[in-house]
Specification:
Strand order of the largest sheet: 1-2-3-5-4
Number of strands: 7
Radius of gyration: 20 Å
Largest sheet: 5 strands, mixed, barrel
Strand content: 15-25%
Number of helices: 7
Oligomer: single chain
Distance between the termini: 60 Å
C-alpha cells in the first residue's frame, strides 16, 4: 500500500476498539483526512501523546481501504499541554478546531492549515488574549473560505465608510440607505476593533475595551453561524477574558 508523509494538526479524536483511536487531521498537503492510530491508548504507546487535539506533527501514513493508518508521528508543535493548562485558551482552541473541521469539510487548504497552526501556537505562548485570538482566527478563516466581511465600506453598495449598522447576512457593515429597519448599530470603536481583528492588528485589538470586545465577539459568532449554517457548539463554552475600560 502507498506510504506518504505530511505535516498535520490534530482536530479531534475518537476511540476505536480497546486500544486504537481514529484521528481527524488537517494536513499541509493532503487536506483533511481521518486516520487510524493503532495501539495509542495503551500506556506503552510511544506516540499517543503526539496525536492529541491541538498537536502538530510530522506523520507517516499508509493508505487503507477506508481509513489511512498512522505509522509514525514526530512532534512539530507540542501545543496541547500548554493550551490545556489554561481554561480560556482551551475553550478557544476547541472552537478553532471545530471551525477548521467545518470549513474544510470537502477539502483542505494550505492557508487554513497555516492559519490554524499559527493560532494554536499563539494560544500556547499566551501572545494575546484567547478571546481576541479566537475572534481574529474565525474572521480570517471565514475570509480564506471566501466569506471575507467588510468593516469599512458598505458591504451591499460599496458606499465609503465608516458605517455602524451591521447585517451579517449582507457581509458586514452597511450604509444607512442599505440598512433594513431595525438594523442593530455598534460603536465606531467596535467597528475599528473588528477591522483590526480581520487584519491582525494586535496593537489596536489589545487596546480595545471589554465592551467593544464583547460586541465584536457577538458579531463574529453571528457571522460564523450564518456562513456555517449552524452554530459552533464550542462557542457556548468559550471563556471570555477581561480588558480595561
Amino acid at each position: 500500500m502507498p506510504v506518504y508523509r505530511d505535516d498535520a494538526v490534530v482536530l479531534r479524536t475518537h476511540k476505536l476498539g480497546e486500544a486504537d483511536r481514529i484521528v481527524t487531521l488537517l494536513t499541509r498537503r493532503h487536506g483533511k483526512i481521518r486516520a487510524v492510530a493503532r495501539g495509542v491508548r495503551r500506556t506503552a504507546s510511544k506516540f499517543g501523546s503526539r496525536l492529541e487535539p491541538f498537536m502538530v506533527a510530522d506523520l507517516q501514513l499508509y493508505e487503507g481501504r477506508t481509513l489511512d493508518v498512522i505509522t509514525q508521528a514526530e512532534s512539530i508543535g507540542a501545543y496541547g499541554a500548554e493550551i490545556s493548562q489554561d481554561y480560556a485558551a482551551y475553550t478557544a482552541a476547541n472552537a478553532m478546531v471545530e471551525a477548521a473541521d467545518r470549513l474544510t469539510e470537502a477539502e483542505g487548504s494550505l492557508q487554513q492549515y497555516l492559519l490554524l497552526v499559527g493560532a494554536l501556537r499563539s494560544l500556547s505562548r499566551r501572545e494575546h488574549g484567547p478571546d481576541l485570538t479566537l475572534d481574529s482566527y474565525l474572521l480570517r478563516a471565514l475570509a480564506i473560505a471566501g466569506w471575507a466581511p467588510s468593516f469599512e465600506d458598505c458591504s451591499r453598495c460599496g458606499a465609503p465608510g465608516p458605517h455602524t449598522a451591521v447585517v451579517v447576512q449582507l457581509g458586514g457593515v452597511v450604509c444607512d440607505a442599505c440598512a433594513p429597519p431595525g438594523t442593530p448599530r455598534i460603536t465606531p470603536t467596535t467597528v475599528h476593533l473588528l477591522g483590526a481583528l480581520l487584519a491582525g492588528d494586535w496593537a489596536v485589538a489589545e487596546a480595545a475595551s471589554q465592551r467593544d470586545r464583547g460586541q465584536a465577539s457577538g458579531i463574529v459568532a453571528a457571522y460564523a453561524q450564518w456562513h456555517l449554517e449552524r452554530g459552533l457548539r464550542s462557542l457556548s463554552h468559550v471563556s471570555r477574558g477581561t480588558a480595561p475600560e
